[in-house]
Write a structure and sequence with these properties.
The protein is of the alpha/beta class. It has one domain: Nucleotidyltransferase, domain 5, CATH 3.30.420.10. The protein has 7 helices and 6 strands. It starts with 10 loop residues before the first strand and ends in an 11-residue tail after the last helix.
């Protein structure tokens, strides 16, 4: 199956505080977040990236004193729109922490990768994107000041690149899940993600509550 892939964004729109009303992302939106760090309790949500898989990226810069974002919240909780993440566990938790929302429904390309790409232990977005859509992502801006008032061109390009191909990656992984008979298993994992985020936020991030000991 031929898939549309993007080496770079065709358009990037930067918004402050929220997405404008009326943007149509269709029935699935690719989502990523940038934060000050990876500590859910300490580090704040700085940027949310969104794409309909059409080469266009919307970046929302979140001000430290206003997380109201009604349009973004409505999109993230719309039951008719699947939110596609890579490592949704973190993004769902950080957005719940700062936006106060439970995101659903969700597709996580990292979980799907681990369920079907069992021939490798490389499940990072860079590795998955290279194999499944033939694009090499740059991670040069991964450690960056995302709370800056003005994002650099390099930051904007980096942030956009993380969501541009998630639709095509999801489609490829869905085919593999179906082939291996693991679609229902994957869906059960996706459905559990809001609860997994709650556990992380409540202090059970490193404890396997299903383990015997």
């Amino acid at each position: 199956m031929s898939r549309q892939v993007f080496n770079s964004p065709e358009e990037v729109h930067v918004h402050r505080g929220d997405i404008p009303a009326g943007i149509d992302f269709g029935n699935a939106v690719a989502v990523d977040t940038e934060t000050q760090g990876l500590n859910l309790q300490r580090d704040r949500l700085c940027v949310v990236q969104l794409s309909a898989g059409d080469g266009v990226c919307h970046l929302v810069q979140m001000p430290a004193d206003d997380y109201s974002a009604p349009n973004l919240k409505a999109l993230m909780t719309d039951p008719a729109v699947t939110k596609i993440f890579h490592f949704a566990r973190f993004d769902v938790a950080i957005m719940k922490r700062w936006l106060g929302i439970t995101i659903s429904p969700v597709f996580c390309t990292k979980i799907a990768s681990k369920l079907v790409r069992t021939y490798t232990d490389k499940h990072g977005l860079k590795d998955v994107t290279r194999e499944l859509v033939g694009i090499d992502l740059s991670k040069a801006q991964q450690s960056s000041d995302w709370a800056a008032d003005e994002l650099s061109d390099a930051q904007i390009a980096y942030a956009a690149s993380d969501v541009l191909n998630l639709h095509s990656i999801r489609d490829a992984l869905n085919e593999m899940l179906e082939r291996e008979g693991r679609t229902q298993m994957a869906q059960a994992c996706f459905d559990f993600l809001p609860a997994r985020a709650d556990l992380d936020l409540a202090g059970w991030s490193e404890t396997d509550i299903f383990a015997h000991s």
